[in-house]
Amino acid sequence: MKFKYSKYVPNPLDELDMDELMSKLSDLLLSSGFDNPWDPSGGMDRTMQALHDAILEALFSGGVLPPDIVEQLFGDQAEGSEEEIRQRLEQLIQQIIERMQESGFLTPAPDLEAERQRRAQGGGGEEGDPGQVQFEVTDKALDFLGYKALRDLLGSVGHSSAGRHDTRDLATGVETSGAPKPYEFGDTLNIDATATILNAVTRQAAEGGASPGDESPAAGIDIDYRDLMVAQGEYQSSCATVILLDCSHSMILYGEDRFTPAKRVAMALSHLIRTQYPGDTLQAVLFHDSAEEIPIRELGRVRVGPHYTNTREGLRLARRLLEKQRKDMRQIIMITDGKPSALTQPDGRIYKNAFGLDPLVIAETFAEVSACARAGIMINTFMLARDYDLVAFVRRVAAMCRGKAYFTTPYTLGQYVLMDYLDKKTKTVH
What we know:
The chain is of the alpha/beta class. It folds into 3 domains: 12-137, no CATH class; 143-165 and 238-428, Rossmann fold (3-Layer(aba) Sandwich), CATH 3.40.50.410; 170-234, no CATH class. The protein is built from 13 helices and 13 strands. It has helices spanning 18-24, 26-29, 48-61, 67-74, 82-102, 112-120, 139-156, 193-206, 259-276, 311-323, 359-374, 388-400, 413-428; strands spanning 106-108, 135-137, 170-171, 178-182, 229-234, 239-246, 281-287, 291-294, 329-336, 342-344, 350-352, 378-383, 405-407. The strands form 4 sheets. It has a 6-stranded mixed beta sheet, with helices on both faces. It has a 3-stranded antiparallel beta sheet with strand order 3-5-4. The longest helix is centred in the first third of the chain and has 21 residues, at 82-102. The chain starts with 17 loop residues before the first helix and ends with a helix. The model is unreliable at 124-128, 158-177 and 425-430 (pLDDT under 50).
């Protein structure tokens, strides 16, 4: 038997950090139409060519491969001609895309238009440009991106872990953290044995029965109902939240993508609630010319459109959803960057006015804010713009419903939202 030896060539896929790659591609995978703000629904940022370019950038500037491997394969130390190095790079990118598909992060979108053309030509015709073939992001990828966003955001605000919401109120629970109290009807029977026996012995001594020092076998401790003491634990409240996302056209205009960070925060909040606060609920509402509820799993796929900002309709739908929830706290987290500029009239028509704060639109919006306040729903507004009129509007909304107003940027939005959610129950339940 003969053996043929050749020079060992490392497989870059063995050194590939898939988690880091997914993080670097998150802006592309969660794209909101920022690459083409005049036609955000065009979907040109979901093509295989766009994915190819994003992976190429991540390989050379994102740190997903060790620098020595990159230099050895594609740098000055690389063996082979320039054409061979280029082919090697293209093969590596194709292998990465295939691994992402095998891992369940991506699926190729069906090319319906090419199939229609092929059938119209009787099965003939050339295949379309492979660079224009689109892909779809899977639920697994979106869940992973939500987890990554949550881990990054919690790390940035200094939280290593999160548990259930603590409050200042004490209740009879399983975990003991407060002084024992006399048992009252309805309390959890989390009996504090030491305090109960002490009560019984003290009462018997006061009534002339067995003294505390009596150790005779006949002596016993007769525990009465009034002797019962229960341990107190921290009352842990539950919260129903509706995250209200502005998907009007201004969220991707003016040279800044504000919608993708908002989606990332919403996905992180969803992952936090699902894993750490199973008693809480989270629902998502988009508001634009009108408003509609969407499944949480679809948050990563939504895009903005050429819409106005119908804040009143979004608040109305969120209030109706929360009124069905029986929770200790009910809140709306509204993320927006613009002034209310649309209103749904009684006959269903949409009244629009993008110039200034229209008195009719503002009055109807404040009326809905008052309805939320009467229902006990708190509105916390995260404003991604700082116009003078908008500041006054948002502060009045916060004052009317005892909520908070945050004036932030897409870069600090996640920290503010998660810090507010984690701290809220200790500040609002007394």
